[in-house]
Task: structure prediction
Amino acid sequence: MSTLDEKISQLQEIIDSAKHIVFFTGAGVSTDSGIPDFRSQDGLYHLKYKYPPEEIVSHHFFVQNPEEFWEFYKDKMLNLDAEPNLTHKFMAECEKAGKSLGVVTQNIDGLHQKAGSEKVYELHGSVLRNYCTRCGQFYSAEYIKNSSGIPVCEKDGASIKPDVVLYEEGLSDPVIRGAIAAIRSADVLIVLGTSLVVYPAAGLINYFSGKHLVLINRDVTPYDSNADLLIQASFSDVFPKLHV
Ligand code: APR
Result:
């Protein structure tokens, strides 16, 4: 059983020899930025709410209970003061150094782009984009955060919807196609900060056929046995010891 340091030096060797890394991320990469994830003990889905949080972020709940949806969404899903952390920045540096094809993320917080990543496939959309459901007028996350009650379009009074994939909604085809193409051309896929329990997102890692599948996550995932290198640790114990 190799120690954490031995695994980190193995990861450094993989990164040094890699030419086309793709990072596949989940909410766990943003917890060091102060944004709770979903399924950790202190995650959003363990919060005691009038309704189960996983139901609140569903399409039918958005349509049938807009008041409660927007109260939860503004309170728990909009962390607009959050800053990228070392893990986000490391991925952005790999892209700038020409070693990474980009990031496939399930996250909706926009922190990969804020860290400097340019190629980001947002499988579940982004809180930074909000549109009128009738005329398509764009609204910022700040507008939503500062709105009272149910935000409506200033032009036609119709409801506004975040560009976020809620449960029961489909993912964007072009984003999925782009993510699959990137994963297919990767020589190294580094999966981090995700419990890999939500599909179709989790299934995308099956398109990887490159040299090294690396999985870095504090808790166990259903894909642990598929990893060539499995690092069960907190990112703050791993990324400060890595360099591009
Ligand atoms: N260091 C290492 N691992 C961490 C850290 C950390 N600092 N913080 C959290 N993690 C790990 C946890 O162990 C957990 O397994 O990140 C994982 C986050 O898993 P989830 O909370 O399930 O988040 P995610 O996998 O992104 O959820 C997928 O579920 O509800 C949907 O749309 C939502 O995109 C989300 C999807």
